[in-house]
Design a protein that fits this description.
Low-confidence stretches of chain A: 313-317
Largest sheet of chain A: 2 strands, antiparallel
Oligomer: heterodimer
Largest sheet of chain B: 6 strands, mixed
Helix content of chain A: 55-70%
Low-confidence stretches of chain B: 1-17
CATH topology of the largest domain in chain B: Rossmann fold
Shape of chain B: elongated
Number of strands of chain A: 2
Distance between the termini of chain B: 55 Å
Number of helices of chain A: 14
Strand order of the largest sheet of chain A: 1-2
Number of helices of chain B: 9
Radius of gyration of chain A: 27 Å
CATH architecture of the largest domain in chain B: 3-Layer(aba) Sandwich
Radius of gyration of chain B: 24 Å
Order of helices and strands of chain B: HEEEHEEEHHHEHEHEEHHEEEEEEEEEEE
CATH superfamily of the largest domain in chain B: P-loop containing nucleotide triphosphate hydrolases
Number of strands of chain B: 21
Strand content of chain A: under 5%
Chain lengths: 317, 378
Amino acid sequence: MPRDSEDRSFRYPLKWRIMDGLNAALDLLWPRRLGRYTGWALLTPALLLVGILVLGLFQIAENSLHTLDTSTFLPGEEYTLANYRIIAESPTYWRIVWRSLLGAGLTVFFTLLLALPYSYIMVRTNKAALRKTLLIVLFLPFFIGQVVRAYGILIVMGSSGAVNDALGLVGIEPIRLLFNFPAVVFGLVQYMLPFAVLMLAPALTAIPRETETAASSLGANWVKVFRHVILPMAKPGLVGAALVVGTLSLTDFAMPAMLGGGSQDFIANAIYDQFFRTADQGLGSALALLLVALGSVIAGVVIAFFGAGTLGMRGRK
Amino acid sequence: MTNGSPSERAISPGKSGQSTAVRVRDVTMDFGNGALAVSNASFELETGKFLTILGPSGSGKTTLLRMIAGFETPTSGEITVNGKPVDSAPPHRRSIGMVFQKLALFPHMTAAENIAFPLKMRRFNPKTIPRRVDEFLDLVKLGGYGNRRINELSGGQQQRVAIARALVFKPELLLLDEPLAALDVKLREEMQLEFRRIQHELGVTTINVTHDQREALVVSDDIIVMDGGRIQQHAKPVDLYRAPDNAFVAGFLGVASFINGHAVPGGLTSGENFLSGTHAGNFADGTAVRGAVRAEQIRIAAESGQLAACDTRLTGTVRDTIFEGERQLYVVATDELPGITFRVYHHDPESFGLFEIGTRVMIGWNARDMKIFEFRAS
């Protein structure tokens, strides 16, 4: 450190002085002895946010216990489980629940199937250009948003869209690609792929290349390396990705609404209909709680069997 | 112990001692980044021998090993293992066991599962696998640890699992890619002796790569010293130490002091001083040369009378004293050769701490102990 007597013109860089000033100001506002509460202070905003969500959930639970009084179009006074009975006795709702579960399951399966090789190549390639291209291609749709993307699919896969045009070139009659269950799953997979790749890439990065080299030197061909080394070691990423993709698909609204054309409702669409079409808040709330319960139970079972994967910090691999 | 210990089944050492296991011929590797990673390397290794490729980082030793393993293909030249070109089969069909620098154990398997892995992959009879695994757990002194997961084992135990896994399928060749580099000194020395014992017991041809000269001297039958992508010398450990071919080898093994000068008959001249030494090779008078004297071959004394037997004697001052436990190191600057600091080992416990910093001393050595090499700027 230069002495004043030697060099009076010396000044620390501006950035350092600003940082020092900020530090001093912080010491005034939040003295050191409060240090052990810093964590809680930082956590408070998030806790408040989640708290509001929980409050809302209680409100919804309360709502679900009142049936709609058809004479006044207001929720009735007395507490009843009638809404739940309606859901349980309605084949339509059973079908919607089943469709949501199946759709989410298929989406998880196909998304992971596509995301695993995608992220593997992205992580392992030696070519920086290829890695960047894969990243950009992956994230471009992120900036577009779900609804616009669904519109894009509508245009491309419509009866006079590019896909049917291409099929026409090889002599295939236009086929209906939209407004059916596969279209919804297709849209969901397309939507979920970046999430899955994002969750898988770190898990695959964590597998040392040397481990694969070792496995092959020990006698494993690439299929066996994949099955006995990469797959088990990537499990945290696979579980994490499956949980995220599964919950997001199960609760998705836009894809079933737009690509299903009203015929392929998921639970979220049914909830929307109750709240904003028939204005039956009670039934809508019951459906919402059912969705929360379904999602929680599935996530709970997965975590119990496979661990939380990359979502759980202290979970075992 | 089961009957039929690994040693009985293995290829017995010595018996096939004359056959060549590994032949490397004019191998060059060019990664296209200016310098050649490996340049014109050639050597042969007899079956059952333990060879160490020794060199500083960036010397090309690991590249050479990876080419022998078949993970890299040489730009030119040929590598054969037991007569067959190494790249004639894909990696998983080669009979080469390898212990990696970071071990590369499978964390999702137990120690026994790790060792069983190559046996399963290579379709050994499933009934014999558990016994073979136990046999090799015993061989590496991990009997009873088979059910431990990898992260429940200590560093040394993980080393042992990695060795057992690389050897359990009886490969023709074992490659060690600096697996001991990450261990602390005590454990490293213990594992060096373990490598030696296991290698002797199984008689498997082994190539080890390291930058640790001590490890190379301890474990090897043969040592190749590499620098700048070139093989500098290939010799038995004792010969390598006693008769280095060039100044790099002299400096890399052990601790030496160097004097640059010009060749004259019977020694070299540095400035106005004549220093007697032994020429390693024939060079004309006036050739730029570099003399090397090992620290343990320099005598140090308070007065010249005690150094009467030395051919060369210099006067100097102790600049530093470093006590290393089993020996004392003195750093001495001489009046005659002011640019050079001499490093002198003193091995007699009685006289440890004899000279303090600033003490005037005499140092000296015999002509046969100063090797004079042709000077190569590098």
